[in-house]
Amino acid sequence: MTGSAGARRRPQRHLPLQIFLGFLVVYFLVPFWWVIVNSSKDAPGLFGGSNTLWFADQVDYFGNLQRLFTYDGGIYGRWILNSTLYAFAGGIGATILSVMAGYGFAKYRFAGRRFSFSVLLGALMVPATALVIPTFMMFSGLGLTNTIWAVILPSLLNPFGVYLMHVYARDAVPDEILDAAKVDGAGELRTFLQVAFPLMRPAVVTVLLLSAVASWNNYFLPLAMLSDNRLFPVTVGLGLWQGIASANNSGSTSLWSLIILGALVSVIPLVIAFFTLQRHWRGGLSVGGLR
Amino acid sequence: MTLLIEESASSTQEKTRKVRGNVRLREHLMGWLFVGPFGIVFLALLIAPLGYALYLSLWQKKLIGGTSFVFLGNYVKAFTDPTFLSGVWFVVRFSLVAIPLQILVALAMALIVDAVISLFTRFSRLMIFLPYAIPTVIGAVMWGFLYSKSFGPLTDIFGLFGAPAPDFFSKNLIFYGLINVVTWQWAGYYMIILYAALQGIDPSLYEAARMDGASSWQIALRIKIPLIAPALLLILVFSLIGTLQFFNEPQILRYLAAGTIAPGFTPNMYAYQQAFGLANFNYGSAISFALGGVVFVCVYAFLFFTRKRRSFF
Questions:
Q1: Which of B241, B242, B234, B235 is nearest to B298 (CA)?
Q2: Most buried one in A163, A183, B15, B304, CB count within 10 A?
Q3: Cβ contacts (< 8 Å) between B299 and chain A: which residues?
Q4: Membrane spanning segments where (chain A) (predicted)?
């Protein structure tokens, strides 16, 4: 493990470390592998099958997919669409609010700025779940529970996004450029949209990703707010199915293969987004982590 | 003549003062215009619910006599309620094991991925981060399958050695079963944050240390870890806030581990059960608020003891 000058020039191999890392990778991938393999099986193959980590004789993805999307009047497809709607509406809304507020905090010395910013920092410590019960009570008074707004409105709140945008705008948008734009006759809004916004774009993408994923992953809030299962996001829907399947084990064995495939299908859009946008994830995380 | 000059001088001064005042006013106005929309959402969906929860938690609904003001009665009840206390004790115990474990795994992986540059470590970095893209609910569902007696692989794997499979849904092992789920879910995310921090270190520091004869281990322990301390602290705080609010995973695995995970297993599950299962919103709010208080105190105590508050924000 001693690094000499020669070892530095050649990439170091560290075989034991790489083998150790290999074991960890297997551990992190096992659940995915299990789901991929077992979503190809039918109920008898699932329960009677001898090998749980390998394919059965019959690989039936298409039959299972067809059953998944037609079960209970195609409710699963609705759940996926609902999740998409909640993720986009919540994500885009939260991002717009965060970008504006972060820029405002970073670039304007307005009265009450210091105080409101420290309130914001305090809010980072407020556990999100502590808000669910009182928000439910307030929304139920306004007749908003069991509507899409009950899920979308609370996901507009993203104090961490504001904090991140503040840090980024402060460091990546020089005051001189903004002043120059204003001297050239650009209004405040135009300066923001055409000068500052392009400079903040990497952080904007990150905040958008983080808040969209947060609303896609949300479980406690929609679980509390929604009672009509046609409004459920896919997380709450699969939780519901799992509850049904576990409650009467004998009668609903076929539901288990739907849950397994449902879990796999619901993960695919995220995995694709994750692989194609990974540069942006890391960029933003380093902003949040380093400062 | 002199008077005139003086007069004009004072009037220009006044004018600049006026202009400067306008600029200040404009600055205030624009600042609030940018922050305002978020401010409204913040007031409506954070401050108002918090205030409302506090208000609700001071009242009690009785079957006879309606709703009455009990001041801190619900909190006295909560902090003497064995279910709430055992829930708090569970999440505190869970945090004490889960957080150091996750951070150790994440730190080890980040150091390896940072030090060894190969195609395989690049691939590993992605794969280890992958669980973060999975909703915690789906992650719990997936591990529920793996733990299952009827179609999980544990029976087969332990059967190879002629041993009975461990039942992670039993009272003895559910703690470790949940620790495993949480570690799987979050270690990769923490690894990426630490990795990003490691990449930010100036490599000339390592060269200087090598000149002085430091080994790779010494560089990792004496240079890398101290320099990424702020990132470690950030992770610690986030995972502490998250773990004390533990809800999704036990709520999902509750169906499979019938009898092991009671409805009041964690404080958040207890609040949910009180509010939505028993329509006892006053007591549910009190539990939520008390849990929020516990989180706040824990985080602040932690930040106070590490005394790194300044470098964090």
A1: B241
A2: A163
A3: 125
A4: 15-36, 85-105, 117-142, 148-169, 199-221, 255-277
- Show Cβ contacts of residue B7 under 8 Å, excluding neighbours closer than 6 positions: none
Concatenated DSSP letters of A13-33:
--HHHHHHHHHHHHHHHHHHH
Q: How many Cβ pairs closer than 8 A exist between chain A and B?
A: 295
Least confident of A52-56, B178-182, B206-210, B308-312: B308-312
State the pLDDT confidence band at A249, using cuts at 50, 70 and 90.
Answer: low
HEC readout, B154-219:
HHHHHHHCCCCCCCCCCCCCHHHHHHHHHHHHHHHHHHHHHHHHHHCCCCHHHHHHHHCCCCHHHH
Which residue carries 């889960």 as its tokens? B98
Using CA coordinates, name the residue in chain A closest to B183.
A28
Q: How far is CA B50 from the centre of its chain?
A: 19
Q: CB-based contact (8 Å) between B267 and chain A?
A: no
- What pLDDT score does A9 carry? 42
Contacts of A225 in chain B (CB under 8 A): none
Hey, what amino acid is at A199?
A: L
- Helix H, strand E, coil C: the string for A129-158 is HHHHHHHHHHHHHHCCCCCCHHHHHHHHCC
Query: Which of these CATH numbers, 1.10.3720.10, 3.40.1580.10, 3.40.120.10, 1.10.287.130, describes B73-312?
Result: 1.10.3720.10
- Of B50, B288, B276, which Cα lies nearest the Cα of A159? B50
Q: Confirm or reject contact between A248 and chain B (CB < 8 A).
A: no
When CB atoms are compared, the residue of A11, A28, A127 closest to B127 is A28
Beta bridge partners of B11: none
Write the burial class of residue B165 (CB in 10 Å: 0-12 exposed, 13-18 middle, 19+ buried).
Answer: middle
**Cα dihedral across residues A23, A28, A31, A35: positive or negative:** negative
The predicted complex's ipTM stands at 0.81
Question: Which residues, in sequence order, are bridge partners of residue B62?
Answer: B66
Give the minimum alpha-carbon distance from A220 to chain B in angstroms, rounded to a whole number.
7
Q: Kindly list the residues from chain A whose CB atom is less than 8 angstroms away from the CB atom of residue B56.
A: 134, 137
* Residues B76-91, mean pLDDT to the nearest whole number: 88
Cα distances (angstroms) measured from residue B130 to each of A38, A40, A278, B127, B143: 20, 22, 10, 5, 15
pLDDT, tens digit (0-9, with 9 covering 90-100), for A37-89 = 888 777 767 776 667 777 776 777 778 888 888 888 888 889 999 999 999 99
Query: What are chain A's domains?
Result: 81-233+282-290 (1.10.3720.10)
Query: CATH 1.10.3720.10 residue ranges in chain B?
Result: 73-312
